[in-house]
């Protein structure tokens, strides 16, 4: 498992709380320069990583480098271009606008999901299976107000795209 520095303690605590015994070690690494030998992993799964790194192409190249031949890469990313809120709520719409602005200011691409297929193809992968996914949320009045829904959006996500591929470079 590879995690960022500030998240280092969370997986360990969560694993202990759930009684998981299969995680042997946690290592902090740069996603675009993994300190792992070539063809090391059977699979790489990255959730919400590509949207947050400054060089998604180089990051995907390194994910592919550490995969064994025939390995599988799974990527799940945000795509806020598909956010749908109903019924309309001015406070929640304003929250969405500010949230997207903050993501962009922090160097994140809030529309990464729609670009995943192209990024994976450009990285030399083929045999892609891509599908959009969505996270439904209750209407603000049903969920106890906009603040409750907004907190849920922060804790979870709005729109997602998911791509899987076997490592078999294009000819």
The topology string of helices and strands comes to EHEEHEHHEHHE
Kindly state the number of beta strands. Answer: 6
Q: How are the strands of the biggest sheet laid out side by side?
A: 3-4-6-5
Sheet bearing the most strands, described? 4 strands, mixed
Q: What class would the helix/strand composition place it in?
A: alpha/beta
* Average residue-wise pLDDT: 74
Low-confidence stretches: 138-171
Give the overall form.
globular
Strand content: 15-25%
Rg for CA atoms: 18 Å
Determine the fraction of residues in helical runs and give it as a percent range: 25-40%
| Separate helix tally | 6
Distance between the termini: 31 Å
Describe this structure in words.
Helix content is 33%, strand content 23%. The chain contains six helices and six strands, in the order E-H-E-E-H-E-H-H-E-H-H-E. It has helices spanning 9-18, 56-65, 90-105, 116-122, 140-143, 146-155, and strands spanning 2-3, 27-28, 41-47, 67-78, 126-134, 159-166. The longest helix has 16 residues, at 90-105.
Write out key terms for the chains shown.
171 residues, 23% strand, two-stranded parallel ribbon, four-stranded mixed beta sheet
Give me a quick take on this structure.
With 171 residues, the protein is α/β, with parallel strands linked by helices. Helices cover 33% and strands 23% of the residues. Strands 3-4-6-5 form a 4-stranded mixed sheet.
């Amino acid at each position: 498992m590879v995690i960022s520095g500030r998240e280092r303690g969370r997986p360990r605590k969560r694993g202990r709380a759930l009684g998981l015994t299969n995680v042997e070690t946690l290592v902090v690494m740069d996603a675009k320069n993994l300190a792992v030998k070539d063809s090391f992993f059977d699979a790489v799964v990255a959730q919400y990583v590509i949207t947050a790194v400054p060089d998604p192409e180089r990051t995907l190249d390194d994910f592919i480098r550490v995969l064994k031949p025939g390995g599988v890469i799974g990527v799940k990313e945000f795509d806020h271009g598909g956010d749908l809120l109903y019924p309309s709520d001015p406070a929640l719409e304003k929250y969405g606008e500010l949230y997207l602005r903050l993501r962009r200011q922090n160097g994140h691409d809030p529309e990464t999901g729609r670009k995943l297929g192209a990024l994976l193809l450009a990285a030399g992968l083929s045999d892609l299976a891509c599908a959009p996914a969505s996270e439904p949320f209750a209407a603000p009045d049903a969920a106890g107000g906009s603040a409750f829904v907004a907190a849920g959006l922060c804790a979870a996500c709005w729109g997602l795209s998911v791509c899987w591929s076997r490592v078999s470079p294009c000819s």
